């Protein structure tokens, strides 16, 4: 419902032209915004405006940004670049910047670390242009290099040629559809286009020390602007060049191939579950007495011995409160995750990797992804508290129609709705201390932290209290399978067998039951890791594939929990299925974290402590949350399975 409402808001806003594209006429001012610099070798971006070797203008101010843009790491600032629509400027002198030897040393280190510059024009990031291998098409990579290194000497790019492409609309006005940046290094104040012979602006070699540099160093910054009409690109599909590259077609094929393989795996697991349900359960349910009437009835080697555990499987598991909190945590995470994906899939009209035009709204509002995530995270607290109170009653083996006291509902609701956002907030604030100490632009401002805390206190907790109160008042029909299998604690219980198997060993069960779920998500994990950790963008647009993968993942986790539950009950007469199923479901979290270690070693090139800390802390949070989510799915599926099969058990 929330996803539909959110999508309706987007559609209504589009219909009312609240998010209509900016249109320009000749001579109109066009604002170029400075953003940040970042590198593939570190997780520490910096404000471009704060660099000691670039042009500064105290009259320029920071631009206001949305919460999503701040969380994304954007830090927009006004610039001195004077751009007038359709007015070419072959050479403009921006400023003569005098910097210290420390500024030169800072520039040298940033260039050697591979930092790229991010600017923004009409919502488009300044891009480096590449030509495909067949030289037929081109594509964009967001950002442009700060400089380059040649023969162990670093050089600074102090001149940029801006090529801005526009599309002529039917009303005669124009929209911007491309923002290309071509940087060059020039040793003097002349633009490269005005002189044929020029040298690059040399900084220093790795063998030199900062002490060998002059105390004061002059850097001349220049730029050129060219406007080019390009009616082959419209405002709706102007982001396509940022997504398409030499590997796009192969990526689509890989996703389809992976999806087919995942379907085959799910079908195999489904077949196993069908055999369990049809051959074993049907045979056992049709044979002999079902509920043990005396101690002599407990023969664990007899057919249908799982039925004799009817009293024990309904008992309270060890740690009801922690288990119910984990289930509520997983439910909230699942609802928020699926909600965000549904929004993107519906907005893209169910496209499966068909380019960016279908996601035009989110592309033109890059912070919308994080804003949407925060909204769903807060709203899903209602669901987690609502379901958490009901699940707590069931796991406690209390009458589901019993009303808890208000104080108890208050405490449980806060725990169920607040655990996930509280955990995320604590991890973010912990990492923020280290990022702030490094003066990185990714450090959250104090005002943003206050806003997040207020959102948690004013929206999340009240929604949780409402959900918990409504969940406490839910009344189940006596014919419900939940009510039919309710057995009070005071009832005499059967003794479980001491049988143990290596299959039920925690390590073995994690390795065995986590392999197939990980195989289903592996390909999507690779693309997401590349997008987040290597490219550092939200340019992931294959949400149709991702939603399909999550659906298959939930299916196979639920089916694995059913298989594990039946093995525990029928083969080993172990009635403690709750934590077993949670362990089975959460096993994928260990695989994902193991894969993150592999990815760090073989794909990333981080060396500084803070970047490594950021990577492994966030991956621990993601892996833990994914594991808990799948663990919750496993427990809930097994709970339905157990109550359904024991609901069929009748005493003679």
From TrEMBL:
Supply one GO BP term. Answer: pseudohyphal growth
Please provide, in alphabetical order, the Gene Ontology terms of the cellular component aspect for this entry. Golgi apparatus; membrane
Keywords in alphabetical order = Golgi apparatus, Membrane, Signal, Transmembrane, Transmembrane helix
- InterPro entries of this UniProt entry? EMP70
Q: Give the signal peptide, or none.
A: 1-15
State where the protein is found: Golgi apparatus; Membrane
Record-annotated membrane-spanning stretches: 256-278, 318-346, 366-389, 409-437, 443-466, 507-529, 541-568, 580-601, 613-646
Identify its membrane topology class. Answer: Multi-pass membrane protein
Q: Which family does it belong to?
A: Belongs to the nonaspanin (TM9SF) (TC 9.A.2) family.
What this protein is called in its record is Transmembrane 9 superfamily member
